Amino acid sequence: MIATARRGRFAHVSQAARIRAATEQAVSATRGSHVLADVSLSAALRRRAEAIESAFAGLDETVRNSAEAQFRSRLAASYILGTFCRLVERGFDRDLARFSDGESAEALIHRWGFHAVDITPCADGRLSGVVDYILRVPPSIVAFRKSYAGAMFDVEESVRNWESVELRRWREARPNAADAPTRYLKIGVYHYSGSDPAHEGCAAHGHDAERAAAALLLRLEQFAGAIEATHCCGAAVATLLVGVDTDDDAIRVHVPDASGRMSVQRYVGNRELYTLTRDLAREAAKDAIRDAVAACAGVASDDATSEGMRWLCGYLLKNNLGQVDAVKQWHGGAYADRGHTERLIVVGDAIDDVQTRNVFFQAQMDTLEEGGADLDIGVRILRGLHEPRSSAVPVLVHVRFDARMPGAEGRARRRAARLRDAILTRYASLAGRGLLHVEAVVRGGDGAPLLPVDPLDLATESFA
Amino acid sequence: MIATARRGRFAHVSQAARIRAATEQAVSATRGSHVLADVSLSAALRRRAEAIESAFAGLDETVRNSAEAQFRSRLAASYILGTFCRLVERGFDRDLARFSDGESAEALIHRWGFHAVDITPCADGRLSGVVDYILRVPPSIVAFRKSYAGAMFDVEESVRNWESVELRRWREARPNAADAPTRYLKIGVYHYSGSDPAHEGCAAHGHDAERAAAALLLRLEQFAGAIEATHCCGAAVATLLVGVDTDDDAIRVHVPDASGRMSVQRYVGNRELYTLTRDLAREAAKDAIRDAVAACAGVASDDATSEGMRWLCGYLLKNNLGQVDAVKQWHGGAYADRGHTERLIVVGDAIDDVQTRNVFFQAQMDTLEEGGADLDIGVRILRGLHEPRSSAVPVLVHVRFDARMPGAEGRARRRAARLRDAILTRYASLAGRGLLHVEAVVRGGDGAPLLPVDPLDLATESFA
Q1: Which of A179, A210, A369, A421 to mutate to test the interface with B (most CBs of B within 10 A)?
Q2: Are A96 and A213 in contact (CB under 8 A)?
Q3: Of A40, A132, A347, A421, which residue is least crowded by CB atoms under 10 Å?
Q4: Is residue A179 annotated as part of the catalytic site, yes or no?
Q5: What is the residue-averaged pLDDT of chain A?
């Protein structure tokens, strides 16, 4: 971990400079791109990543030039949190992936049999761009995106989320009517490192890719089983297991067979698919993806039962080819910093506004009592990065509220204050030595400002 | 608190003896009963209370006769927990209130416009018989019964509970079809002491009845507002504020006006109604209740809009007249032990199998991080009762699981073990001095056995 931190120590600045040069190069010459890569989408995503990098780059400069040790601790952490919050409020255009081959991706996903997508990745910062960069799914279709160490989501909570989505279909026909033949899809995303599997894999699963995949597959099966067992009338969800090689963001899609079953060993690997399809004509490349998916599912390419799921797998693979291509173009094949370079930790509710690789470790939780083990992993990773620079680990507690609900902001403030206090208690020794710095914010929905939580918010907790 | 504890010190045994004598007396002469009191229901409830008392009475005897100090601490606490668990598993017949005037209470409640009842009382042990004894509502209609200190329930969680009930109506037409013109009813129950308001009221609200009522009313309004604001198409719930005088179990029903509004100051008090109707003929007594309810609502007795809610208020008042009557018959007007005499604390999921007054303080929570303040109140109350006897405060962690869900038992065991460990950490000093004893159990649904949670259950937590 320490080794990784040293390697990545001043990686941010040099990386930002490298990105700039590479962007210019890419604009002038994209002829090397994969035939299916959406080059303009990649370029837009690249500009966003660059904006995020450069927002932090000023800080790196300041920290490097600063002689005062005290600046390098809490002040630096506070500066990082402030920078991050401003990036969140900046409102980057996340609607870049709204079309797929000129068609509305949302309409396509509905047409192929899915009305909502619930994505559970690992809390690892290298997956912090999972929706916009790695999978390139439009946020409008993503009903939930919650991260947990090792992607180990809570089954009972997922069932409640499903209930919430289904009730809206019944009552409000949103996003479609309840009798439409579509399913709720839960995607679990684990990760590994192809180049350094024993050190740069998933910390929560002992850097063991197979263990990470097997544990997540079991949990997806438990979720699907829970819905079927407790809700009658053919209630069923779709599940999909996806792996990410954090070296180059290439995914593995564990295509379900005709009966919906997946296997840890059976998947379509996008790195191989990239090589296979790179020199093909556009339609031939698409056919190659379809064939690979059908072969993995063990069905004929015109099998009707598995048609929707196979389309979805192909859609994700094709999207991800664009990301693999972008990493090849801009990072010379794979990322220079294969390990962790997270700036901060986000605890509480999900933040998806600042999607890009390795910006933050994030763990979703209501209380630290349930999420403590997840946060321990994040703190251990970020200590390895920040302590050598004598800087505190910045932790942002983030709690969302529905501004339409009476009293919701006050309740969110108390929850955020309680979570912050619990963190300061659990890591009292680190915080006392200036090695951990916690700030808390609440937010009344997408696009709303982040409101700082006052230490008085918990003190004013009343029964009224 | 200490004074109360001393007063109630050996109250259990003498009370049990008194009950036995009173029961015989009651069987031979019920002519003193209120005209609307369901005497046979009261007698059955009395027999159950007696069985519960006598199960604990043996322990009182043993503790009193025991010279060994060590028996009076953890062993006694463990004995209390074991006795309680056996009582839970005994499966008392809770279906006593299934008829109201010979009709199915469930069908009546549906017919009058309610498909599910969600009851949130205070965690105070004097309300532990709130469903079966005080309100006398059949458990089949009670979708949720969760207790919190000061009845301060979580609004967001209540919204999720509502969603869960409504989805079943849409998908499964259970308990009725979604287009049936019925509502979800949430009843909040606060309490106070008419005879000693400054000391025997609700500890969570500083023994201030008006404050307790106002805080709960606000929260009920927030819940109703949250449903209306976040769910379209005329989504609306009914709410009802009820107060209990813990001296004699007489309720106050804060009847909503024609627009559904309630007021802390405006209610029908059952103690007054008891006196008013006692000497009337049966139908005249019922008319008197109806008139009092309509007057409180400020509507004519044939007002159609408020009809269902007024029926429900009358139903609860009539049921409770039976309880007031029973307390008068068996306890000479009011309970001898007006304060706390709880045997144990239940933390986690609700237990309703052993409903009777003052048996246990219970606080519903997923984690101690959110429920710590509630448990603090319970521990403070029970220390006052148990420390003078040199006995540890017995705490039972109880987590339910849906046995149909794959892996649910393991997850429940880990949650129970985590909650137990958090309690032992928070009250480490008390536990270390043998003044607090915690055991944990999980249960796979109504009627299922209570399964002890092994200390290894948390240790074996794996990501799989």
Answers
A1: A369
A2: no
A3: A40
A4: no
A5: 90
CB-CB contact of B356 with B171 (8 Å):
no
Whole-number pLDDT of residue B31? 53
| Catalytic residue, candidates A38, A60, A118, A124 | A124
The rounded Cα B240 to chain-centroid distance in angstroms is: 15
Tell whether the model's pLDDT for residue B2 goes beyond 50. no
Helix (H) or strand (E) holding A188, with range, is: strand A183-192
A79-101 residue pLDDT tens: 999 999 999 999 999 999 999 98
Instruction: Could you please state the CATH topology (level 3) that the domain comprising A2-93+337-459 is classified under.
Output: 60s Ribosomal Protein L30; Chain: A; (3.30.1330)
Examine residue B138 and say whether the peptide bond preceding it is cis (omega within 30 degrees of 0): no
Q: Which of chain B's residues have a Cβ under 8 Å away from the Cβ of A229?
A: 402, 404-406
In tens, the pLDDT along A358-394 reads: 999 999 999 999 999 999 999 999 999 998 887 899 9
Phi and psi at B77, nearest 5°, equal: -65, -40
What are the residue ranges of helices labelled H in A66-201? 74-90, 105-111, 155-172
In one-letter notation, the amino acid at residue A192 is: Y
Considering chain B, tell me which residue range(s) the CATH 3.30.1330.140 domain(s) occupy: 2-88+338-459
CATH 3.40.1050, chain B: domain bounds: 98-331
Report how far residue B249's alpha carbon sits from residue B269's, in angstroms, rounded to the nearest whole number: 11
CATH classification code of A98-331: 3.40.1050
What ipTM score was computed for the predicted complex, to two decimals?
0.90
Closest partner CB to A155 (pick from B166, B370, B411)? B411
Residue A210: which residues within 8 A CB-CB, separation 6 or more?
A: A264
Give residue for tokens 């206090």: A421
Q: A219 is written with which tokens?
A: 């949990």
Q: How far apart are CA A369 and CA A359, in angstroms?
A: 25
pLDDT confidence of residue B8: 32
Check residue B333 and give left, alpha or beta (phi > 0: left; psi -120 to 50: alpha): left
Q: Indicate where chain A has its CATH 3.30.1330.140 domain(s).
A: 2-93+337-459
Cβ neighbours around A220 below 10 Å, total: 25
Fold type of domain B2-88+338-459:
60s Ribosomal Protein L30; Chain: A; (3.30.1330)
